[in-house]
Design brief:
This protein is an all-alpha fold. The chain is about 75% helix and about 0% strand. It contains 5 helices and no strands.
Length: about 120
């Protein structure tokens, strides 16, 4: 059993070395593009917004988790369906779910869209 431990130790050391080199590459200023930094700033804003949401609804209002998930799901569905002008087929494809699943959720939350005449 001792040889297996030695082999695993060497693999772990190699993994640590490779990961250390990747981190060093990321720390090199000329490799980080402005787009990359903008993406991380956007992620930080998203996490901050999520933390504010959690603080408000989970901690202050004490909404139970299943109810909170339903609120989020309904809000996301309305937002996505609005961006596709109520087209469930395209919205389902965008969300990565089946059309029938989206249709069930639309019925569950009683979401209605009225198409504007052209």
């Amino acid at each position: 059993m001792k040889p297996d431990v030695t082999i695993n130790h060497h693999k772990n050391m190699e993994s640590i070395r490779v990961n250390g080199m990747r981190r060093l590459e990321l720390l090199t200023i000329d490799r980080i593009s402005p787009g990359y930094l903008d993406e991380w700033k956007e992620r930080a804003r998203s996490w901050e917004a999520l933390n504010v949401f959690i603080e408000q609804f989970c901690m202050k209002q004490r909404i139970p988790l299943p109810e909170l998930i339903n609120i989020l799901e309904k809000t996301i569905l309305i937002k996505v369906l609005s961006s596709f002008n109520g087209n469930q087929k395209d919205a389902a494809k965008f969300l990565g779910i089946k059309y029938t699943t989206l249709n069930e959720k639309v019925k569950k939350y009683n979401i209605k869209f009225f198409k504007n005449p052209i």
